[in-house]
Write a structure and sequence with these properties.
Carbamate kinase; four-stranded mixed sheet; alpha/beta; globular; 10 helices
Length: 297
Amino acid sequence: MLNESEYIRKAEATRVRVLSEALPYIQQFAGRTVVVKYGGAAMKDSNLKDKVIRDVVFLACVGVRPVIVHGGGPEINSWLEKLNIEPQFKNGLRVTDAPTMDVVEMVLVGRVNKELVALINRAGGKAVGLCGKDGDLIKARPQGQEGIGFVGEVNSVDVKLIQSLVDSGYIPVVSSVAADETGQAYNINADTVAGEIAAALEAEKLILLTDTAGILQDYKDPSSLITKLDIQSSRQLIEDGIVAGGMIPKVGCCVRSLAQGVKAAHIIDGRIPHALLLEIFTDEGIGSMIVASPYSS
């Protein structure tokens, strides 16, 4: 049984080993841009939310340049119910008629976005909240499927505003609402927005926080995690039905971002405390990393 002083020494030794292991990664990624799609349980659980925010601020403090993109599905559902609007989905997409679009914009831009900004600022970072409308950051177009209303896709991205903020030491926090050429607002999938912004920024990494361990060879077996794969093998997993359901668009946006120059894309379990730091600053990481080719580092 360890006495108190021995326990403290052991804890301090562990902390030093962790810092020592992290140092090469801190040196490697200092000055590089990392785009994080924030969602899932990590947004709903207050304890996890606090850890994600601290991780983001830590990244900024050691010289990494984080950009946060977020959704907010559960919060949208909650407000729709308060306003007696029944949430509806079609083929996995939120049916977004005009009243629903008003709620989506109110919640994502006016509530979730500003809450995240305030949390980052309170934790010692400097955050600025944006949506796709700000500075014509994102131009939207209709998704094209009938009966889903104002669900959009990314038509173009102009990251000059984000780049200016990052260069000035700020952490941009972007909600996935954008407008088309006429000013009509659209609700866009946050994974897609994160991938397109990462590509436009030529980011070092795109990281998707999810509620799964990553890409699994057998979705029923968490121990079947595939820790590293490339674009070709990712597409093959989709064709073989191993990547299915809601994981298809996530892997798809990772592949698209890699094809446009992002160095690596990661799908990690946001339910694990400090998942971001574990994935970026440890030898083993915790999730699935997708790279452009088998020869990518």
